[in-house]
Amino acid sequence: MPAPHDERPLGPGEYRARGDTVRSLVPGAVLAAVPEARAAAEAEGRGLRFDFLDDAAVLELLRLRHLDEAALHRAGMRLGIPTALVAFALFAGWGAYVQHWEPGRDQYLYYGLCGAACVLVVALYAVTLTRHWGSRPRQKVRARAAAYRRIAHLARDRGAELPDAYPHYGPYPFAAAFHPEAEDLELPADLELPADRRGGPPGAPDGKGP
C-alpha cells in the first residue's frame, strides 16, 4: 500500500490515527502493568500470532492500519464522486428533457443508458470492495488493530493512564477476519522503522514492553 500524503515525517513512536492526526504510541509496559490487559494481550497474541506488548511491532501495526484506512478513503472518493456526477447527469437529463419526450426509441435508448450506467457502477463497486475490503493481508492488519484497541480500552478501564480514545480509531466491526495464511504486509520505505527496530517513544529505548 502506498503511503498517503503526509505534511511532515513521523517521529520515533509516532503514527497517524483517525483524521490523519499524529499520535504517540503508549508503551507496552503501561498496558502490561494492568494484569487483565496483560492477560488479554497474551491471549490475543496467541490467537493472532502477534506480540501486542512489543512496542516496535505495535507501532508498525498502527502505521500499516493508517495506510489501509487511507487507501480505503481514496477508493471511496474515486468511486463516490464519479457516481454522484453520473447520477446527477442522468436525473438532470430526465428532468430537463427525457420526461417530455414521447414514448419511443429515444426514450428507450435513455433507459438503456441508465441501465448500463447502473451495471457499470455496481461492477466497479464489487471490484473495489473485493480488492480493498476483501484483501486477506489487509484484513489481517485490521484484525490485529481491532484486538489492540480492545486491549488498550481494557487497560484504560482498569485504571491505566492512557489518552482519551487511545488508540484513536474505530473497532472494525467487519472485514477484519484473521487469516493466518495471509502474508504480512510491510511498511513502505519512507515509513520503515529503524534497522534496530527501536520504534518506542521516549522512555522506551529498546521499543519493547516487558
Topology:
Layout: E1 14-16, E2 22-24, H1 28-32, H2 35-48, H3 55-96, H4 105-132, H5 136-157
Antiparallel strand pairs: 1-2
Helix pairs in contact: 2-5, 3-4, 3-5
Query: Considering DSSP H and I runs of 4 or more, what fraction of the residues is helical?
Result: 40-55%
Q: Number of helix segments?
A: 5
How would you characterize the largest beta sheet? 2 strands, antiparallel
H/E series: EEHHHHH
Radius of gyration: 23 Å
Alpha-beta content class = mainly alpha
Q: Span from first to last CA?
A: 31 Å
The strand order across the widest sheet is: 1-2
Total beta-strand segments: 2
Which stretches are poorly predicted, pLDDT < 50 over at least 5 residues?
2-6, 194-210
Describe the structure.
The chain is mainly α. The protein is 53% helix and 3% strand. Strand 1 and strand 2 form a beta hairpin. Helix 3 crosses helix 5 (136-157). The relative contact order is 0.22.
Key terms for this structure?
210 residues, mainly alpha, two-stranded antiparallel ribbon, elongated, disordered C terminus
